[in-house]
């Protein structure tokens, strides 16, 4: 499996160099979005009840796309971090993500391409469970981290929609924090820090301006390991972005994630595999660079 991972890396790097060796100016499209959101609630002698709250969240998405006569190469970097303080002595993390994706395609037809994918996901900071009397460490930088590599085909009939099938895919889970590694967190064997699975993956991406200044973006990633084909790893992300003007915007982001190898503390107090759901509503400063 390690050889497969190394081979996929080398193929992606080689194909990327071939793309750069072609037209390096007019065929490139680069840009990004930056956002900063802040909210505060202050209460004093308020009969309606509630708690004081301070929340701040920052996010950035950078992209670089190459579209040549015979090849496409798309790179995206997503960063996000948020902190919340609600009548507690310290701030607590509310958002934390670092996602990098790179996909290269060599055109077989105008709509169909031979494709190689690299998808890497982790977080910046430690995460804790505060349900008990003392906070319990449940995550950290590179614990977990997910690296997905794939070789297959990509179908893109329009600029805003594409689907990819990778019959040869490698999913690698990293748990580099010693405490979490000893617990066997995130499906990695106790005491181990890396787990590699060979399988197949399916990706779908859709981004479209459904109405003036309202954009819908959704991305679905599904992985199925060949040694346990009944169980799917599903990651589905959706973002609705509403532009108010050049510097103000509102957005609603949701994430649905499921992996049967990861035990989570469920809402009913039990522990085991469960569908994880996250939503973030943001209103604040936004800047688009293109």
Task: Describe it.
With 290 residues, the chain is mainly β. The chain has a single domain, classed as Beta Barrel (Outer membrane phospholipase (ompla), Chain C), CATH 2.40.230. It is 9% helix and 61% strand. The protein is built from two helices and 16 strands. A twelve-stranded antiparallel barrel has the order 1-2-3-4-5-8-9-10-11-12-13-16. A two-stranded antiparallel sheet has the order 6-7. β10 and β11 form a beta hairpin. It is globular and about 70 Å long. The N terminus is likely disordered.
Secondary structure layout:
Elements: H1 2-21, E1 28-41, E2 53-67, E3 71-85, E4 92-107, E5 112-122, E6 127-129, E7 136-139, E8 145-158, E9 161-174, H2 178-183, E10 194-211, E11 214-225, E12 232-243, E13 248-258, E14 264-265, E15 271-272, E16 276-289
Antiparallel strand pairs: 1-2, 1-16, 2-3, 3-4, 4-5, 5-8, 6-7, 8-9, 9-10, 10-11, 11-12, 12-13, 13-16, 14-15
């Amino acid at each position: 499996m390690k050889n497969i991972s190394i081979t996929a890396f080398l193929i992606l790097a080689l194909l990327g160099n071939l793309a750069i060796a072609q037209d390096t100016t007019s065929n490139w499209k680069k840009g990004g979005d930056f956002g900063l959101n802040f909210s505060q609630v202050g209460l004093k002698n308020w009969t309606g009840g509630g708690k004081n709250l301070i929340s701040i969240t920052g996010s950035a998405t950078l992209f670089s796309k190459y579209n040549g006569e015979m090849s496409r190469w798309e790179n995206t970097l997503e960063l996000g971090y948020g902190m919340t303080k609600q009548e507690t002595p310290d701030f607590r993390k509310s958002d934390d993500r670092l996602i990098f994706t790179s996909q290269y395609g060599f055109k077989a037809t105008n709509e169909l391409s031979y494709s190689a994918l690299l998808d890497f996901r982790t977080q910046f900071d430690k995460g804790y469970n505060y349900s008990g009397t003392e906070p319990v460490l449940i995550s950290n930088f590179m614990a977990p981290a997910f690296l997905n590599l794939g070789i297959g085909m990509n179908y893109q009939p329009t600029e805003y929609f594409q689907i990819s099938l990778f019959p040869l895919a490698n999913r690698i889970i990293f748990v580099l924090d010693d405490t979490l590694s000893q617990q066997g967190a995130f499906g990695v064997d106790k005491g181990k820090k890396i787990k590699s699975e060979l399988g197949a993956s399916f990706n779908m991406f859709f981004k479209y301006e459904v109405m003036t200044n309202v954009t819908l973006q959704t991305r679905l990633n599904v992985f199925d390991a060949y040694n346990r084909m009944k169980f799917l790893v599903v990651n589905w992300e959706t973002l609705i972005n509403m532009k108010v003007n050049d510097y103000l915007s509102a957005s609603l982001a949701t994430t649905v994630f499921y992996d049967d190898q990861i035990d989570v503390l469920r809402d009913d107090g039990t522990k085991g595999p469960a569908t994880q759901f996250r939503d973030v509503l943001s209103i604040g400063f936004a800047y688009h660079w293109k």
